[in-house]
Amino acid sequence: MMNIGLRPTIDDTTHVPVIEAHLFDFGGSLYGKFIKIHIIRKLRDEYKFETVDALRVQLKKDKAFALETLAKECPLDK
Q: Domain ranges in the chain?
């Protein structure tokens, strides 16, 4: 799951886009490493939530949808 944007809920003072990727079921560190990311589908537009907790609730929904989408479009048994 990835965000490409301005992170308006976290920091609405910067106007420099960032890319943040969350890898499911991975606990290591990839800082300083090169990785390849395939974009499968856009989940939703970026939105400024009223609170960080509201963002967390939405991120849980986004994760469920992302996992469902990956299971359908990129099954591991291919």
A: 2-73
Give the tens place of pLDDT for each residue, 21-57: 999 999 999 999 999 999 999 999 999 999 999 999 9
Whether 33 contacts 55, CB under 8 Å: no
User: What global pTM score does this model have?
Assistant: 0.85
* d(C-alpha 73, C-alpha 68), whole Å: 9
Distances (CA, A) of 69 to 44, 56, 75, 77: 13, 20, 9, 15
How far apart are alpha carbons 3 and 47 in whole angstroms? Answer: 11
- Tell me the C-alpha distance between 2 and 39, whole Å: 9
